[in-house]
């Protein structure tokens, strides 16, 4: 049965803070940074007003914020943090530690470009810098997805087949500061959905125990791990990440039962007969959907694929969504300086390489540092993709959209 | 260690060590070992407190004793000994 819900106005940051308030994690350790600041402000208010029982740790840096979460989570607590851009960069070494030690921390990231030159606006360079750290990464298109994902993330992180940290990404300002209508659940329904933290079993020197620091059943978490075991432990982590796809789908389905809203890894839109299509993540995919509808009305067979889950990379679902489309554009607010292309382009192209039937692929880097990705720019991308289809060749594999020369 | 080491499929999750550090005998690391001359020893136990490995135990009679299963032969005890009753001898 779908739970009772009501509509309210929230921006992305408020949605993240409100959902987290309903979950009421044991520890929240965060440091304010634009455009995530509202999350920390709101949550501090909740704490001051006695609306949550969370221990709020006002840390002196993001490095400390995530370190505090690592300690709390290892002690068996639910721990939440939030950051953006250079704050996420400052957490970098702890990202590996949180993931390597299998700590189910949830972190909100209001995606912002990593300086320098310093810039406070949206792109995905912060999250892409963290893509290989071992965190599950989900990208939201709108505020509703931020709210839903901020609740669902706990169940994913703590799923017995997952036990890994989850990063809830949403575009800085475009989502974080834009008020939208959001359906919210009752506190009790959220509590019921997230339940209590589930601990994975591990084996210490005294045999099988819950994975948490407990003086009654002591284990050591995070000691030196050298040539003899480190590689084995990393393989264990990589293989475990592969296995999370099934668990995430199961949580998505359960969430749908409670809210009536379906959450997927990949959202194909008008792909069945598409002749030109784009794939991308985040808020700009809402604009792309509008453009696809306009182009369809004009008789152009356009399609799009919105990607919500980036880590683990849902390769099979993406290939299925791409289907028989002959030309595919990758739209991404990220880059890899000196790389073979931007991150999503490299992943999608690699996924397609072994397939017999594959589209021609072109990469479109857009909106770095918050530059607007307008419907006109997206129309230009589709125009370019049509040209690729007609000529049968990708003249320019990587282009920059809306940049002055 | 003659025991077969575990692979990634059977290692405990979260990189938790399944063996105690006590099972890790480091006594064969050293090239030298401390030898205590109890006739000169003043029972000050400085060597016990300075030993970085906890491999210098204090006996009930007050004298200290080297635990050769764990002593790495660093020589800190011999260096700190006030009456110079500890000599580092090369292992054969």
Q: Would you mind describing this structure in some detail?
A:
- The complex is a heterodimer of chains A (405) and B (92).
- With 405 residues, chain A is of the alpha/beta class.
- Chain A has 13 helices and 17 strands.
- In chain A, helix 1 (12-23) packs parallel to helix 7 (143-158), helix 3 (62-74) runs parallel beside helix 5 (92-100) and helix 7 crosses helix 9.
- At the A-B interface, strand 9 and helix 9 of A face loops of B.
Query: What ranges of chain B have pLDDT less than 50 throughout 5 or more consecutive residues?
Result: none
> How many strands appear in the DSSP assignment of chain A?
17
Biggest beta sheet summary of chain A: 7 strands, mixed
How do the strands of the widest beta sheet of chain B line up side by side?
Answer: 1-4
CATH architecture of the domain at 34-90 in chain B: 2-Layer Sandwich
Computed over alpha carbons, the radius of gyration of chain B is 17 Å
| Overall number of domains of chain A | 2
Query: Please, what is the average pLDDT of chain A?
Result: 97
Strand portion of chain B: 15-25%
Give start-end ranges of low-pLDDT stretches of chain A. Answer: none
Report how far apart the termini of chain B are: 21 Å
What fraction, in percent, of the residue positions of chain B are helical?
10-25%
Task: Give keywords.
heterodimer, A: 405 residues, alpha/beta, Rossmann fold, 6-stranded mixed beta sheet, 20% strand, B: alpha+beta, Alpha-Beta Plaits, two-stranded antiparallel sheet, two-stranded antiparallel ribbon, 2 helices, elongated
């Amino acid at each position: 049965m779908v739970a009772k819900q009501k509509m309210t106005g929230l921006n992305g940051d408020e949605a993240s803070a409100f959902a987290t308030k309903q979950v009421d994690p044991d520890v929240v350790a965060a440091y304010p940074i634009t455009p995530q600041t509202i999350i920390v402000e709101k949550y501090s208010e909740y704490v001051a007003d006695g609306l949550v029982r969370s221990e709020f740790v006002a840390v002196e840096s993001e490095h400390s914020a995530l370190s505090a979460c690592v300690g709390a989570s290892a002690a068996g607590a639910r721990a939440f943090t939030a950051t953006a851009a250079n704050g996420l960069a400052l957490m970098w070494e702890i990202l590996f530690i949180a993931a390597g030690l299998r700590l189910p921390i949830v972190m909100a990231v209001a995606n912002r470009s990593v300086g320098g030159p310093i810039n406070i606006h949206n792109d995905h360079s912060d999250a892409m810098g963290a893509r290989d750290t071992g965190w599950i990464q989900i990208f939201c298109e709108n505020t509703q997805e931020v709210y839903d994902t901020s609740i669902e993330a706990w169940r994913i992180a703590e799923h017995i087949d997952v036990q890994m940290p989850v990063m809830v990404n949403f575009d800085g300002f475009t989502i974080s500061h834009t008020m939208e209508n959001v359906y919210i659940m009752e506190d009790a329904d959220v509590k019921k959905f997230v339940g209590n933290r589930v601990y994975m079993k591990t084996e210490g020197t005294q045999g099988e125990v819950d994975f948490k620091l407990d003086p009654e059943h002591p284990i050591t978490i995070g000691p030196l791990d050298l040539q003899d075991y480190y590689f084995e432990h990393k393989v264990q982590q990589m293989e475990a990440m592969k296995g999370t796809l099934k668990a995430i789908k199961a949580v998505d389905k359960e969430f749908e039962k409670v809210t009536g809203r379906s959450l997927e890894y990949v959202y194909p839109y008008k792909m069945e007969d598409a002749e030109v299509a784009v794939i991308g993540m985040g808020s700009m995919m809402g604009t792309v959907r509008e453009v696809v509808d306009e182009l369809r009305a004009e008789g152009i067979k356009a399609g799009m694929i919105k990607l919500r889950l980036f880590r683990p990379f849902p390769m099979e679902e993406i290939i299925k969504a791409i289907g028989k489309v002959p030309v595919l554009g990758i739209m991404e607010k990220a880059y890899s300086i000196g790389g073979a292309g931007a991150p999503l382009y490299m992943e999608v192209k690699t996924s397609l390489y072994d397939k017999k039937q594959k589209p021609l692929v072109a990469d479109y880097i857009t909106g770095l540092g918050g530059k607007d990705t307008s419907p006109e720019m997206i129309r230009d991308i589709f125009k370019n993709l049509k040209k690729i289809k007609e000529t049968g060749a990708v003249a320019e594999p990587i282009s920059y959209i809306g940049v002055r020369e | 260690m003659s025991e077969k080491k575990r692979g990634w499929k059977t290692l405990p999750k979260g990189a938790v060590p399944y063996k105690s550090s006590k099972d890790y005998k480091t006594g064969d690391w050293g090239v030298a070992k401390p030898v205590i001359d109890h006739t000169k020893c003043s029972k000050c136990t400085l060597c016990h407190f300075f030993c970085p490995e906890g491999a210098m135990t204090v006996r009930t009679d007050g004298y200290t004793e080297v635990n050769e299963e764990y002593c790495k032969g660093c020589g800190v005890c011999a260096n700190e000994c006030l009456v110079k009753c500890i000599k580092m001898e090369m292992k054969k």
